[in-house]
Amino acid sequence: EAVVSTQSTGEHQLLTPFSPAPEEGSFLLPAPVMLLLCIRRCWDPEVLLRPLSHRFYKLTLQLLKRYAVWLQELPSSSEELQLVDVCKAVRDTTTLVTMVPSLVEEVVAGHIPSHNPQLVLQSCGEITDSISVLGEHVTHHVTEECCRAIEHAQSVPRLYRRTNREIPTEPLAYVSNLTEALESEIYNSCLPEPYKLDWCQRVTTTIISRYHGAVQEILVSLRKTEDSLAMLKRGRKGAQQANTTPANTDEDKIRMQLRLDVTSLGEKFAQMGIEKGEDYTSLLDLVSQGKR
């Protein structure tokens, strides 16, 4: 009965994981709080059956395993799952795994003197490994949200072709959208710093890679347009036509705008302390080619 009661209590909390946590101070969600309470209950003198101590130790390991499985299944548990709740679960979990070994040692001491603490550490390792599943979930959703803004980069040529628009001096608004979700969902989240930096880096790498592809496509199109215009001019007679080329063509303005946009994106990453890496250097070199 004690085992069933303990398991039922833990299962109930895992079914309602994002209700407010008890005012413990250490956790944001109730699941880790109840896990620790369940472990203590297993070894409560009024519950523990000393001849079955090894069974209760097994139950303790099962509770830790169940928490690890819950983390792994969290991304698929609900369509309404909020990324902020996932970040809370990660923060709570990193706190939890630092507390479990000493708690188990405290409650088990005197009941199973020969217990193997490595089993508990192994269980904690499985819990920590489960965070990688959450990382994939969060970084995927944030990446897709950020990269939607890349579509607006494709409209840059239309802003300058045959519009007599002035030479650009500021980055376009879509650049801010490239990092908006990254800032709000990861950079400004409650994630522990190591996970925050790692996840930001993952998202940044993908943003730069996709943006590089979009910019390269635009520049290839510009080159084709310039080549076509050059052939057309060579086919015309007289030097007067050749001397009417403006100081800055529409294509020049498009390149200037892309340089401003790419530079602004790099500054945003720098403000967040994110390493831009060689991929960004390659992107910056790409938009700097042919600079006037």
SSE diagram, text form:
Elements: H1 2-15, H2 30-42, H3 53-73, H4 83-108, H5 117-147, H6 150-153, H7 156-160, H8 174-187, H9 193-234, H10 239-242, H11 250-271, H12 277-288
Helix pairs in contact: 1-2, 1-3, 2-3, 2-4, 3-5, 4-5, 5-8, 5-9, 8-9, 8-11, 9-11, 9-12, 11-12
List keywords for this structure.
mainly alpha; 292 residues; single chain
Detailed description of the structure:
- The protein is mostly helical and 292 residues long.
- The protein contains twelve helices and no strands.
- The mean pLDDT is 87.
Please give a quick description of this structure.
By secondary structure, the protein is mainly α.
Give the low-pLDDT segments: none
**Structural class assignment:** mainly alpha
Main beta-sheet annotation = none
The level of helicity is over 70%
End-to-end CA span: 80 Å
Estimated share of beta-strand residues:
under 5%
What is the radius of gyration computed over CA atoms, rounded to a whole number of angstroms? 29 Å
Number of strands: 0
The overall average pLDDT, rounded, is 87
> What form results from the Cα inertia axes?
rod-shaped
Order of helices and strands: HHHHHHHHHHHH
